[in-house]
Amino acid sequence: MPHTPHRTALLLAALASLSACSSPSSPRLPQPPPVKATASLPLPSPTHSTPTDLPGLHNLVAFHQGLISGSQPEGHPAFDSLASLGIKTIISVDGAQPDVQLAAQRGIRYIHLPISYSGIDPDRQLQLARATRDALRQGPVYIHCHHGKHRSAAAAAAVTTILGLASSDQALARMKVSGTAPNYTGLFACVRDASPLSQTAIDAVPADFPSISKPSDIVQAMVDIDLAFEHLKDIEAAGWKTPPQNPDLVPASEAGRLADLYRHLLEPHNASRHPADMTPLLQDAHRHASILESLFAANQPDPGTLSAQLKLIAASCKDCHAKYRD
User: Fold this and answer.
1) Under 8 Å CB-to-CB from 158, ≥6 apart: which residues?
2) According to the 3-state scheme, what is the secondary structure of 227-257?
3) Which CATH class is domain 217-324?
4) For all residues of the chain together, what is the average pLDDT?
């Protein structure tokens, strides 16, 4: 939709402070009748000095009354917990596609605005501020990434600062409660540099936020790699066998999946889209993942050998993260 002169002026005012960008329209999804919460749970308080865990949710930390940061919801128990907390809006800053349907079944709206580990760009900060401000008018808001320690904490901290709900020092202190790792310097920097914005600047940001942001092939592959690696860690903890609590995890399949994902990132159409010096790091990770896959294929599941190989993959990931993610 074209901007009117008045709307264009408002957008320019926002850009003068940070930046503003539009988002694609949310896909229309069926809205089943809300599921009533079976119990009322108290919201975590901004004065709590330790995170809270609930069924299906981890590392819940309040950055302001009614604004909670935490982990990705895990199945029905998590969404039941969110409903019992009275959460009306979930904002995901993770790259993985959110489970919009489970949220909708409980009358909860999903907004998907992914951010990176390197920081939150000004456009996204404005979007998160507008989305959170408007959502808080409807009820408590839950912001999550994957583990609920780094990206979601930084997003919540930046938002509370931009909205004038907390000083940057107070917001940074809440990030430490969440356990945000010090090596994510970009996340801390964007909060440290944030400052309150006028309502006019925030109003200039289009509010048509998507419930699902379709990631690029590379982003989705990175999300899938993280998940496959976590599955392999669970398998390792079970003695390199299928974990009893997750009977769908087949060790050889997960090893093969990880190798395939790295192979996918090295395909020409993807390799041309990332920095050239990232390719050797991906090749190294792919080589180690392929060896792990071959160990299973050769029916040589010696636990010590498998664990050593998994550590090599983890080291390759760490090298890449240190340069491109952290």
Assistant:
1) 120, 125, 128, 129, 171, 190, 191, 194
2) HHHHHHHHHHHCCCCCCCCCCCCCHHHHHHH
3) mainly alpha
4) 83
Any bridge partners for residue 252, and if so which?
none
Asked if the model's pLDDT at residue 10 lies above 60, the reply is no
What whole-number distance in Å separates Cα of residue 175 and Cα of residue 311? 29
* Structure-model confidence comparison of residues 270 and 128, the more confident one: 128
CB proximity list for 19: less than 8 A, separation 6 or greater: 121, 122, 123, 126
Which segment of 68-77, 127-136, 177-186, 213-222 scores lowest on mean pLDDT?
A: 213-222
Using alpha carbons, select from 122, 93, 127, 126 the residue that is nearest to residue 110. 93
Burial tier of 51 (Cβ tally within 10 Å: 0-12, 13-18, 19+): buried
Boundaries of every domain in the chain? 5-203, 217-324
pLDDT band at 189 (very low <50, low <70, confident <90, very high): very high
Report the chain's terminal Cα–Cα distance, integer Å: 37
* pLDDT given at position 296: 75
Cβ atoms of 170 and 61 closer than 8 Å: no
Structure-token match 């192979």, residue found: 263
Q: Are 46 and 174 in contact (CB under 8 A)?
A: yes
* β-pair partners for 111: 91
In sequence order, the 6+-apart residues with CB closer than 8 A to the CB of 64 are 46, 160, 165, 166
Distance CA 84, CA 61 (A): 16
Helix, strand, or coil (residue 297): helix
Alpha helices for the chain (secondary structure H): 5-17, 75-85, 100-104, 122-136, 151-162, 168-178, 185-192, 199-203, 217-237, 251-265, 268-271, 279-297, 303-324
Q: How many angstroms separate the CA atoms of 72 and 152, rounded?
A: 10
Specify the fold of 5-203.
Protein-Tyrosine Phosphatase; Chain A (3.90.190)
Phi, psi of 70 (to 5 degrees): -175, -165
pLDDT for res 222? 77
